[in-house]
């Protein structure tokens, strides 16, 4: 699984809102979309793409925690204590962990504003296929 991250500020910038950083232009957003579309097309053609999704902005998040006596506590996002949140994911089925890492490294070529590129990263994590015997 390849995981990408962002912040509410990033989502606001992509929506064209000025934050402490410059807002994205419509051309910036279109270029990113074209890059992601082409990457997804190539991964689909190679048979490596299983699934991919972008996630809604953190402001649309709800966190559910265990409260006292098992009572759930529900909090609306975004969360000030969390700078980056999961922004999207790609599930790929590859020949190796190194190949999944190569795919994630392609995100460095995504045309985005420089302040976004400077803070961008992706995690590559294997999906644990373990299933308990009693299931």
Any chance you could write out the topology, listing elements then pairs?
Layout: E1 2-6, H1 8-14, H2 26-46, E2 49-54, E3 62-66, E4 72-76, E5 85-92, H3 97-105, H4 114-119, E6 122-124
Antiparallel strand pairs: 1-5, 1-6, 2-5, 3-4
What does this structure look like?
32% of the residues lie in helices and 24% in strands. It is an alpha+beta fold and 135 residues long. A four-stranded antiparallel beta sheet has the order 2-5-1-6. Strands 3-4 form a two-stranded antiparallel ribbon. Strand 3 (62-66) and strand 4 (72-76) form a beta hairpin.
Give me a quick take on this structure.
The protein is an alpha+beta fold and 135 residues long. The chain has helices spanning 8-14, 26-46, 97-105, 114-119, and strands spanning 2-6, 49-54, 62-66, 72-76, 85-92, 122-124.
List keywords for this structure.
135 residues, alpha+beta, 4-stranded antiparallel β-sheet, two-stranded antiparallel ribbon, 4 helices, flat
